[in-house]
Each structure stands twice: as structure tokens, then as C-alpha cells.
Amino acid sequence: MRLSLWxxxxxKVDTIEVSDHLFDAPLNQALVHQVALAHMANARQxxxxxxxxxxVSGGGIKPWRQKHTGRARQGSRRAPQWRGGGVVFGPxxxxxxxxxxxxxxxxxxxxxxxxxxxxxxLIVLDGFGLPEAKTREMxxxxxxxxxxxxxxxxxxxxxxxxxxxxxNLHRVKTIPAFQMNALDLLNHDRVIMTLEAVRRAExxxxxxxxxxxxxxxxxxxx
Length: 222
Known about the structure:
- It is a single chain.
- With 222 residues, this protein is an alpha/beta fold.
- It folds into two domains: 2-42 and 100-205, Ribosomal Protein L4, Chain: A, CATH 3.40.1370.10; 45-95, no CATH class.
- The protein is 31% helix and 14% strand.
- It is built from seven helices and six strands; from the N terminus they run E-E-H-H-H-E-H-E-H-E-H-E-H.
- Strands 2-1-3-6-4-5 form a six-stranded mixed β-sheet.
- Helix 2 crosses helix 3 (102-118) and helix 4 (135-144) packs across helix 5.
- Residues 209-222 have low confidence and may be disordered.
């Protein structure tokens, strides 16, 4: 597959050959959905907590005697129906994390990058060419590329000048190639990758692994 190569002035300077396995993979919506949900679940802290009637302090004495008061019988002022009482079926700390197998994670990244490439929402830059680490310089580059929607900037490694130039821009995020994930790719409409980042991504996820399938069950017929 071939992609256009752009410069920081918004001019097309060349076309490059990229891996079909990474940038021309078929879209598997179920896989992408499952991986994205797992990423969101892993981001949850799971620290919400409420106290049951056994955890609330006080309430050790019976409010009033059982019979002959004209009021409903009560055993504790910390029962759920009382103000300051315990909570019924409230949340308790729990672990929401889900395991994401490597093959699923790689597959989701391939699907999303390929779909971005097909929809022409993937921009490959020969370099940012920032004279200084200033927000206005990054804003100028994005304006030249006609990027007005949420954008994800991917560099081969963490580059201080790119991070400092983009951190104050609304809906713009920068990450190194090895931290690229399905959720960030989905949350940003446009993906801007440097040529070195594309090559780094190909090293990480473009290799075709040998798929090992389970053996078919033995025929134990007559």
C-alpha cells in the first residue's frame, strides 16, 4: 500500500510504501469494540464505596420498645430507612480491569490505522520542522495540514519540542509510537504520524505472526 507524504507546509512531497498488514487490514468492529471497552475499564479506579448498616457507627440501642408505642417497630437507628443509616446495595471497591491479549491489541490497532488510511484521516509527515518549541508553531503546522478536528500526533519516540508545542492545543495529544493504543486512535479523528513513527509502528505491529490453531477433536465414532 502507498500513502502520501506531506511536509509541514501542507504540501505533498512524495508517496511511500507501507505495510499492507498494518495499513490495509480489514475492519473487525467487534474486535475494536472489545479492546476499546477493555481500555476504558482499565482506566476505572473502582474506589467508590458506601457503608452498610454494619459499618455505620452508632445505633447500638433499640430506639424504643417493641410493642405498645403506636409506632413501627425499630431495631436500630442505623437501619437503611433512617437518616444517617447504612446504604443498601451500594457500590463497594472492586477491580474493573480486563486482560487484553497481545494479538487482540495488535489486531485492533491494525484495524483502526487501516480504516483511518482508507478514510484519508491518516497524515504522514516527513517532519514537523519546528524552529522552536512554541504553541504557535504547532498551530501553524496543523493549519497548513487543514486539521481542525481532534488530532493524535505520533512520533517515533517522545520528542520534547513536539510535546511542548502541542500540549496547550485543544483536543491535540502527542504520544510515541510504542504507546499507540486503540482508545486514543478512536478518540481522535485525525492521526498525524511522522515517517519515522510509521517505520517504528511497522516494526512493532506489521510482522505477520504464525497463527496456531487448536487441533480438531479426534473422531471417536464407531
